[in-house]
Specification:
Layout: H1 2-14, E1 34-36, E2 42-46, H2 49-55, E3 59-62, H3 68-82, E4 96-104, H4 109-122, E5 133-147, E6 157-163, E7 167-173, E8 180-185, E9 189-194, H5 195-199, E10 201-205, E11 212-213, E12 216-217, E13 223-229
Length: about 230
Amino acid sequence: MRLLLTAIKKFRNKSLLCRRAGLSSVSKCSEDSGHRADAGRLLLCGSSSVVLERVREHVEVREDFISEDEERALLTELEPGLKKKRYEFDHWDDAIHGYRETERLQWSATCEVVLDRVRGVAFPKDSALLGPVHVLDLDKAGYIKPHIDSVKFCGSTIAGINLLSESVMRLVKEGDSTEWLDLLLPRRSLYILRDQARFSYTHEILKDEESFFSGRRVPRHRRISVICRNLPA
């Protein structure tokens, strides 16, 4: 597992793209370029309705995907191992600032039920999945820089459970900073990036001080994501 994590870091560094000039962290969506959850809450917004329509089938946010009890179960299982690690603020791969991470193959029965639910809704049937589940712990001062996950180790779909804090994920079309999409990730939500959103757009988690969604401030605290991926075809 250590070798796999090191390899992912290496390729994540190679695919890292610097933040595009001119894209404001407080960019506001027009009314016709947002997508609302069933309950009416705006969870996706983009630079235009055209961009949103283009990636609508490739991006998904499911609010309240897990319960408070399930979040507690995940944290109870993860915290002892994470506390043994220190947050890294000046790491050689330069893709993430203020983080600690690990991988897990073995989970309690309660957590395995949650992960099976993720796999069931996020991935095609009979899709070969990356064995270890990636756990990424961001400090309140941490953030994830724009990058595209390695195509050598990760397949067409990335699915992550967002724990502890709301956050804003930004997708930007590679090579065209005028095309962007913001995802509001509520606490205990599930986000899914597939196909075009996975391969053609960088993704990042905004810094706390830059964390805005459709012009609204979204305070970001410590955040843990539990991430599942499938294998390349």
